[in-house]
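Good morning C.,

I know you're traveling, so I'll keep this short. The sequence:
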Amino acid sequence: MVIKKRSPETRFVDRILINLGDDRHAIVDPERYESLTRYRWYARKSHSKIYAVRKVRHYGQETIIFMHRQIMRPAAGQQVHHINSNSLDNRESNLQIVTPQRHAAIHQARRIMKSADFGLTGDIFAPY
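The tokens, ready to paste straight into the viewer:
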């Protein structure tokens, strides 16, 4: 059996890419790197998107922790929205805490515009 080691992270001035395996990387702010790399993160599909997640075992139960939720720490009932629609871009400037109603409205508006082929980007949904 060959054990394949993950390659180290890729560093840029304004961001770091954390290797999730399978040629996928999460984008994070440099100041978050040390606190996040204490854990082993991997890519997981959820609701047709790929997210950076880690597993936690508590009293024999396995729980999934999403990286964007760990970074933003939303209150119960709140959600974290990826402004640019890249679910692996977990820089704070790309994350926004929203209510479930606001989150649904953002995604509904994107679906309408996509189906109408307006050619607009996610930037029009920046935080207000």
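Safe travels,
E.
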